[in-house]
Design brief:
Strand 1, helix 6 and strand 2 form a beta-alpha-beta unit. The protein is of the alpha/beta class and 215 residues long.
Length: 215
């Protein structure tokens, strides 16, 4: 079975809400030792983006999208034994969805990728109030802060959040990503001092491997 055929089978099962099929396929890929970053990009991210595009065109309902998201979140927990087995490197990142952003899987995958590199990934989840984000950054003093934004109307909130973090913590690297940036907005990110727009997990992986401070 080719990779594309496997993906289509997985996607069709996810779209149909067939949790058992999705779990079985995901377990098979994990047992085969397939790289987690590849699974996140080529299975999780690709499938959810495709379902999101179908929803935007009125081809699937909100209920179908939410069911696919719930199934996907349960799949991500299957990666934990591999994630947390990595030796710690003494670095950490705070990752959050901005206020009024309720799509959290992208941010969760970012936090997981940090864990895969031995960092501690503090993930705040969806719709995190700015004051709470600032308090956690103050408490944890992370080596990076990641902001996730999925819908385009969240870009202004993301910019306000990033500016507030930059004002309070002038030297911490700020990383911004999410589906909302696929249709532009990278130039707006450049308005924020020392902020980096990352459009894929591959770009984040490269940033982590190059070391903190490559902003």
């Amino acid at each position: 079975m080719t990779d594309e055929v496997q993906y289509r089978r997985y996607f069709d099962a996810l779209l149909a809400g067939e949790r058992e099929v999705c779990h079985a396929m995901f377990a098979e890929w994990l047992n085969a030792g397939i790289e987690l970053r590849w699974l996140y990009e080529q299975r999780v991210r690709r499938s959810l983006y495709e379902i999101g595009e179908l929803w935007e065109r009125g081809r699937v309902s909100v209920a179908v999208e939410h069911l696919a998201t719930a199934i996907t979140e349960s799949l991500l927990t299957m990666t934990y034994p591999r994630l947390f087995a990595r030796p710690r490197v003494g670095r950490s990142a705070v990752v959050t969805c901005v206020a009024n952003e309720y799509h959290q899987i992208g941010g969760k995958m970012v936090a997981d990728l940090f864990e895969l590199h031995g960092w501690r990934g503090y993930f705040l989840g969806a719709n995190a109030p700015l004051d709470d984000v600032l308090k956690l950054v103050e408490e944890k003093r992370p080596d990076a802060v990641g902001l996730s934004v999925t819908v385009t109307f969240g870009l202004d909130t993301m910019l306000r959040t990033a500016r507030a973090i930059r004002a309070a913590f002038p030297t911490v690297p700020i990383l911004v990503g999410g589906q909302a940036l696929r249709w532009g907005g990278r130039e707006r990110i450049e308005q924020i001092l020392q902020a980096r727009c990352l459009l894929s997990l591959d770009e984040l992986d490269t940033w982590i491997e190059r070391g903190v401070g490559d902003v």
